C-alpha cells in the first residue's frame, strides 16, 4: 500500500525517510522542542532509533507519522502522526513537534486538520487521543483549537528529569456514527 502523502495550501506531509535523519536529530535534540516531549537524542547515531520506530509503526500497522515540509521549498518543519493505533478499538494517539523556526505560523493546525481527516475518513477511527504535559500550554491550546476536549489529568503519572509530572488527556471523537 502506498504511503498517504497529504497536502494543505502551504504544506506537504510525506513519509519520513533516512534522508530526514539530520532534521529529526535537530528537532529531537533541541532544548525547546524536547522540553515537553518524551523523546530526545544526544547524537546523530542515536537518532536512528527514532527513524526505526517510525518505520516499525508502518510495518506493524500500529501507527503512521509524516514529515511536515513546506510545499515547493521542501524545507523540513517537523513531524506529526499517530502511534498506539488500535484497529480493534478504532483509536490512536496523536503526537507532533516542530522545529522552533517554524513555530507560530499555524503549521501544527494545518497539519493536524489534514491528518485528523485522514484518521476519521481513511483509517476509520472513532477516537484520537493526545497526552500532553500539563505545563505544555501551547500544545494544549493547539488541540483545543482542533476540537479536542480535555478529559482529565493524570496526576504525577510520569517521572521526567527526576521529578513527577502530570499529563493532561485530550480526545476528539469522529462525528460519524458507526455505520457511516
Structure notes:
The protein has 180 residues and is α+β, with helices and mostly antiparallel strands. Helix content is 30%, strand content 35%. It contains 5 helices and 8 strands, in the order ββαααβββαβαββ. It has an 8-stranded mixed beta sheet, with helices on both faces. A hairpin with a 3-residue loop joins β1 and β2. The longest helix has 17 residues, at 44-60. The chain is globular. The two termini are 24 Å apart. 25% of the residues are buried.
How would a textbook summarize the main sheet? Answer: 8 strands, mixed
| Global mean pLDDT | 95
Q: What is the helical fraction, as a range of percent?
A: 25-40%
Based on CA atoms alone, the radius of gyration comes out at: 16 Å
Helix/strand/pairing category: alpha+beta
Give the overall silhouette: globular
The tally of beta strands, per DSSP, is 8
Number of DSSP helical runs:
5
User: Could you name the ranges where pLDDT drops below 50 across 5 or more consecutive residues?
Assistant: none
Order of helices and strands: EEHHHEEEHEHEE
Q: Beta-strand percentage?
A: 35-45%
* Cα end-to-end separation: 24 Å
Physical arrangement of strands within the biggest beta sheet = 1-2-3-4-5-6-8-7
List key phrases describing it.
180 residues, alpha+beta, 5 helices, globular
Brief account:
This protein has 180 residues and is an alpha+beta fold. It has helices spanning 21-28, 31-34, 44-60, 107-122, 137-145, and strands spanning 6-7, 11-15, 64-70, 76-86, 91-98, 127-133, 149-160, 163-173.
Amino acid at each position: 500500500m502506498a504511503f498517504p502523502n497529504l497536502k494543505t495550501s502551504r504544506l506537504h506531509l510525506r513519509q519520513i525517510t533516512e534522508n530526514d535523519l539530520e532534521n529529526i536529530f535537530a528537532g529531537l535534540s533541541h532544548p525547546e522542542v524536547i522540553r515537553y516531549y518524551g523523546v530526545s537524542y544526544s547524537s546523530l547515531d542515536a537518532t536512528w532509533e527514532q527513524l526505526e520506530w517510525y518505520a516499525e509503526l508502518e510495518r506493524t500497522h500500529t501507527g503512521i507519522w509524516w514529515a511536515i515540509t513546506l510545499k515547493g521549498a521542501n524545507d523540513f518543519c517537523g513531524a506529526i502522526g499517530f502511534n498506539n493505533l488500535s484497529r480493534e478499538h478504532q483509536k490512536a494517539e496523536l503526537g507532533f513537534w516542530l522545529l522552533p523556526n517554524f513555530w507560530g505560523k499555524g503549521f501544527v493546525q494545518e497539519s493536524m486538520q489534514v491528518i485528523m481527516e485522514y484518521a476519521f475518513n481513511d483509517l476509520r477511527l472513532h477516537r484520537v487521543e493526545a497526552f500532553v504535559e500539563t505545563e505544555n500550554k501551547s500544545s494544549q491550546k493547539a488541540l483545543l483549537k482542533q476540537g479536542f476536549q480535555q478529559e482529565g489529568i493524570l496526576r504525577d503519572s510520569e517521572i521526567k528529569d527526576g521529578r513527577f509530572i502530570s499529563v493532561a488527556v485530550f480526545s476528539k471523537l469522529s462525528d460519524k456514527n458507526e455505520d457511516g
